[in-house]
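Sample intake sheet
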Amino acid sequence: MANLRDHMGRPIVAVTGIGVVTSLGVGKKDNWAALTSGKSGIHPITRFPVDHLNTRISGMVDFLPSSSKGASHLTYELAETAAQEAVSEAGLDSDDFGGPLFLASPPVELDWADRFSLYNSDKQDAGAERLLRVARGLKELDIFDTTQFGSIADRLADRFGTRGLPITLSTACASGATAIQLGVEAIQRGECDKALSIGADGSATAEALIRFSLLSALSTHNDIPGKASKPFSKDRDGFVLAEGSGALVLESLEAALARGATILGIMRGCGEKADDFHRTRSKPDGSPAIAAVRAALADAGLGEDEIDYVNAHGTSTPENDKMEHLSLSTVFGERIGSMPISSNKSMIGHTLSAAGAVEAAFSLMTMRESVIPPTINYDNPDPAIVLDVVPNKKRNAEVGTVLSNSFGFGGQNTCLVMAREPV
């Protein structure tokens, strides 16, 4: 009989359901097949005109009914689709989940289609006053609802029958991992015996593309989209904006075993540290990222030599990859050159608010399937970043523990440690 409490006396948290959607497809089966074959989901943008833009590629999800309906609608469908897969796999009631909901989603704003609708409603005067006057005269709430940060989680709570006030959070690119951390900690505190944690992001809009381009954060390798994301390579030039979702059903191990659930993995530890150095750049010495990794290991009760694989944040930006190497080499020392460290973003791009949840899902599948997905496009190694990035081809390996990193803008750093089996 497995221990039901961890090294701190807290309930052990198990994963009993996993769901995922990325530009590679819907569901774990299609995503895993593509990911492990080194297939890229990056493609030319067709959702809006890109004639005068420096970046004309993305990992947008263009195959769902809501793909052309705006960021809020697509984010909801991504979240619902991944959650449905996870809850079904867990064998729980998809209409009466019974535990709390933690949703990581992007900041919301009025979609362009709605802006044009409002601006075109009355041409007698111009600017903000006209917009406000037309908005006050609206007879429906749809436009209003889609601009409320908590509206997606409210709809998901109704859809899945979660309990309590649903939590919506945004901690930049760490959001998906933070949503999982909040679910884990709620169970550890004894507030619930199960939780639904989701990261979803359908906000790859023209505005988002332009904003990240102005930060010089995006790749401009448009000619061969599948080769644009090159984490840890010398010629990396930025990340690829993408969309997706990941969902986990978390349960106390005791409750999961009691109902005969299949245990897909164990959430061993979570660590987070903030960095007030800059709105986008990392602190030069990497100390917050280093501290986040160490906090996750300490929370898991594991030493540096007990991690088998790192699912890297690995965005393919010159700055981020350099800082992630600094943090990992500081924590793991001489092991850093030989332990496998790969980046899913080389194939799916950067799914922003969803990234931590998507990569946690892939990390759990790595352990279950004993296969490490590759870092593709690794043809020009950076001599300043000496890592075993599992270059270009998958690797069969027994993986018992994984560290998954999420390092977001504004210095929001969250790391998760997962294990294949209970202690």
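Comment: The chain is about 35% helix and 20% strand. The chain has two domains: 15-109+147-419, 113-145.
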